[in-house]
Design goal:
385 residues; seven-stranded parallel β-sheet; Rossmann fold
């Protein structure tokens, strides 16, 4: 079987599909990942074949903020909606068509924000499966993006899809039911899959990582998207943790030099990127922005969280984690050194938060792994509606 994986050039969107793409390849299927040039080195490093399609994220974001649709609303997801629906989809679709004409895929796997892929799949009569990256996209976001990509469907001679093509054939859901009880438009076509934990369990860590373990260790991240992980956003987090009796492991993203954060106390270790599969087993709690990848990775290890949502899908993710008792949440106007200090101290001292996270860990461990899902996609057939 030939499988075309269509994804946007963002680590948090690509990483969730890596185990499944690898599993399909290992089972003898031909897999090609279609994404923007900036992500192709990452695709190849993951051991997958890649092909260029669509604009790089910085270029798409720069164009998005100039469009009137960006200025017409204040929702946290607004810039993403404009970037994915008004910029990336129309620019990617022609290149994706050309790639598909040569590759002739039997199946298309695509990210929920990769809106060119469903149009291509419908035009070619090929099933398209949406792979989830976190909670289901908010209905208002899907409605807006569906409106913006409707001209792409019409230009292909197809009736526009009310959900932008996301829930026509199948949906791979990486979120345990306790965090997401209702599946809305994906109900009936959803298939559970264990969420990916970014990195490899045997990746090399810095020398200081081997000295962790004498006291609690807290992992801190604001993700991989530059608008969320700018150096200034880390200030209250690092200041609030500096005088606690614990070790702090911080990743600041590959776009930032750790030196930009200045000298740190001996208990704070700053790196650009670390394998979560390797560092999280050494940790006792996580402070992050409620990005789906980091949050699900933390819960996969049963770690309680302090969440500081800032945009995109981070607010509903934070609310869901708080509701099941695995996290405390600091809204943007409450992120101060004192508040960070107190919230981290609380989740380390109050065992109920760890218990909440451990319940989700057990639920995640019961979800089918990528290899099982890859086999099922082939042997069970794909629901088409």
């Amino acid at each position: 079987m030939r499988v075309l994986v269509s994804t946007t050039p963002m680590e948090g969107v690509f990483a969730p599909v890596v185990p499944l793409a690898r599993a399909l390849s290992a089972q003898g299927h031909e897999v090609v990942v279609a994404t923007a040039p900036q992500l192709l080195p990452r695709v190849r490093a993951a051991g997958l074949a890649g092909a260029a399609a669509g604009p790089n994220a910085p270029d798409a974001a720069a164009e998005a903020v100039t469009l009137p649709e960006f200025a017409s609303g204040t929702q946290p997801w607004r810039i993403g909606a404009v970037m994915f629906g008004k910029v990336m989809a129309p620019r990617k679709l022609p290149e994706l068509r050309a790639l598909a004409a040569e590759f002739e895929p039997d199946l298309i796997l695509h990210a929920p924000v990769d809106l060119a892929a469903p149009v291509l799949a419908a035009q070619r009569g090929v099933p398209a499966i949406t792979y989830g990256t976190g909670l289901l996209l908010e209905p208002e976001l899907v409605e807006v993006m569906a409106e913006w990509v409707a001209p792409l469907w019409e230009s292909a001679g197809l009736p526009p899809d009310r959900h932008a093509g996301l829930y026509r054939y199948g949906y791979l859901d990486p979120v345990p039911r306790s965090l997401q009880p209702a599946l809305g438009p994906a109900a009936g076509i959803a298939r559970p899959i264990r969420p990916a934990v970014p990195g490899e369990a045997d990746d090399e860590l810095p020398d200081w990582a081997g000295k962790l373990g004498g006291r609690p260790t807290v992992y801190v991240s604001l993700g991989t998207v530059p608008i969320f992980n700018q150096p200034g956003a880390f200030g209250p987090l690092l200041s609030g943790l500096a005088d606690l009796d614990l070790d702090v492991v911080v990743t600041v993203g590959t776009d930032t030099d750790p030196a930009a954060h200045g000298p740190q106390p001996g208990n704070i270790h700053v790196a650009q990127w670390l394998s979560l599969a390797d560092i999280l087993p050494r940790c006792h709690a996580v402070v992050c922005h409620a990005g789906a990848g980091t949050t699900l990775a933390a819960l996969s290890h049963g770690l309680p969280l302090v969440l500081t949502p800032r945009g995109a899908d981070q607010f509903p993710t934070a609310a869901a984690c708080r509701a099941i008792g695995a996290a405390r949440v600091l809204e943007p106007d409450r992120v101060t050194p004192a508040a960070v200090h107190d919230e981290v101290a609380t989740i380390l001292a109050d065992d109920s938060y760890r218990a909440g996270a451990q319940r989700i860990r057990a639920e995640i461990e019961r979800l089918p792994d990528a290899a099982s899902v890859a086999s099922a996609l082939v042997t069970d057939g794909i629901r088409m509606s």
